[in-house]
Amino acid sequence: MLMLVDCSKCRTPLQLPPGAQSIRCAICQAITHIADPRSGPAPSPAPSSSSSSSYQPGHVPPSAVAPSPYNHAPPGQPPHAQGRKRALIVGVSYRHTNHELKGCINDARCMKYMLTNRFKFPESSIVMLTEEDPDPLKRPTKYNMRMALYWLIQGCQPGDSLLFHFSGHGSQQRNYNGEEVDGYDETLCPVDFETQGMIVDDEINTTLVRPLPRGARLHAIIDACHSGTVLDLPFLCRMDRQGKYIWEDHRPRSGMWKGTSGGEAISFSGCDDNQTSADTSALSKITSTGAMTYSFIQAIERGHGATYGSMLNSMRSTIRNTDSGSELSGAGGLVTSLVTMLLTGGSLSGGFRQEPQLTANEPFDVYTKPFFL
C-alpha cells in the first residue's frame, strides 16, 4: 500500500513507494526523509562515489533500514559539458499467462543494440528490465519499473539525454478528475500488473516529465496499446496520410501543469489512445516483434531520421505497407545487422490498424527540427 506524505518544503502530497525512506518532490525538487521509528533519526546520505556510474538496484547503504528510490541512482561525477546519455529499456512478455506477448524481448534487445552502436549510449548507462534476467531486481515488476524510472531522472542536468523504451501491454482506466480529454488515463502494464496494478500516465508524467530541467532532453518510445498520450504530454501531433499536421492541445482543463521544468520531452508511441498496437510476425518470417519498435529502427536505418516529421511518416509507412516485401528489405547498416538476424524475411499481407503518434511538451515544426538522441 502506498503512503501519502507531504513534501517538507512545498507541502505537496507525495506517494511514497513501499519501503522507501525518502522521496524527491517533482515540483520543488526537495527531498523529504521519512523517519523509521525503529531506527531513530534518519541516516545521513551516503557519500557520492566517483568510481561507478552503474545501476545497482540491490545496493543498500549499511545504515539504511529499507532502500530509497534515490539510493539506486548512480552517484557518478557531474556531467561533462556535452551531457550524459542514459536509457531505461523495458520488455515485458508476460510469460505463462493469458496475456503473453512474443516480440517484446526482441524489441528490448534491438533497442539496446541501436542505442549503443548508433547513438553511442554507454552500455553501463543502460538499464534493461526483462523476465529473462535471472536477477529478480532486473525483472519488469511494478516496483522495479518505478525504481528504474526514478534512476533515469535522478541527477539530470542541462545537456543530458534520457531515453525510456517500453514494449509490453498498455491499457486505459477511467479518469474522474477531468484532466483527460477522452476521459481515460493511459497505463503501462508491468509483469505483475494483475496483483500490483498498472502504472498510470499521471505518475509517469510526475516522475519523468515535470522534473526535466532546461537544456535536458527526454525521448520515450512506447510500443504498447492505447499509448498515444501515455506520458501525459500537453501537445499531440495529429498528422494525416499526406503528411499534413496540426498540434492538438491536450492540456487539462483544470490548469494542472503537465509540461517540464524547462527541458524537452518528446514521445513516439505505437498507436493512438483508442487503438491497439501489434505484436506480430507479419514483419518477419523468423520471429515476432512489436510493429512500432521495428518501424522506429527501420526509419533510422534507412536514413529517414533527419527530422521528427520524416521519422513519423516513415514509421507509419512501414506499418501501413506490410504487404510489400520491398518495404522490409534492403537498407544494410550497423543496427540492421542485428535486426536482420532477428527480424528479416518477407512479410505477410494485411497491414495493421495502428498509427504511431508523436507528442511533446511544446509544439514545433516537425519537418525542420532535427531528430537526435
Which strand order does the major sheet show? 6-5-7-11-14-17-12-13
Q: Helicity level, as a percent range? A: 10-25%
Question: What is the number of beta strands?
Answer: 17
| Pattern of helices and strands | EEEEEHEHEEEHEHEEEEEEHHHE
Describe the largest sheet: 8 strands, mixed
Distance between the termini: 37 Å
Globally, the shape reads globular
Query: What is the count of DSSP helices, taking H or I runs of 4+ residues?
Result: 7
Broad structural category: alpha/beta
Kindly provide the radius of gyration, computed on alpha-carbon positions and rounded to a whole number of angstroms. 20 Å
pLDDT < 50 runs, ≥5 residues: 36-53, 58-81, 272-287, 323-352
Mean pLDDT: 75
- Percentage beta strand: 15-25%
Topology:
Blueprint: E1 3-6, E2 13-16, E3 22-24, E4 31-33, E5 85-91, H1 104-117, E6 126-130, H2 142-153, E7 161-167, E8 170-174, E9 184-188, H3 193-196, E10 199-200, H4 201-209, E11 217-223, E12 235-239, E13 245-249, E14 264-269, E15 279-280, E16 289-290, H5 291-301, H6 308-320, H7 336-343, E17 357-360
Parallel strand pairs: 5-6, 5-7, 7-11, 11-14
Antiparallel strand pairs: 1-2, 3-4, 8-9, 9-10, 12-13, 12-17, 14-17, 15-16
Task: Describe the protein in words.
The protein is globular. The protein has 373 residues and is of the alpha/beta class. The protein has 7 helices and 17 strands. The two termini are 37 Å apart. Strands 6-5-7-11-14-17-12-13 form an 8-stranded mixed beta sheet, sandwiched between helices. Strands 8-9-10 form a 3-stranded antiparallel beta sheet. The protein has a two-stranded antiparallel sheet with strand order 1-2. A hairpin with an 8-residue loop joins β15 (279-280) and β16. The model is unreliable at 36-53, 58-81, 272-287 and 323-352 (pLDDT under 50). The protein has helices spanning 104-117, 142-153, 193-196, 201-209, 291-301, 308-320, 336-343; strands at residues 3-6, 13-16, 22-24, 31-33, 85-91, 126-130, 161-167, 170-174, 184-188, 199-200, 217-223, 235-239, 245-249, 264-269, 279-280, 289-290, 357-360. α5 crosses α6. Helices cover 19% and strands 20% of the residues.
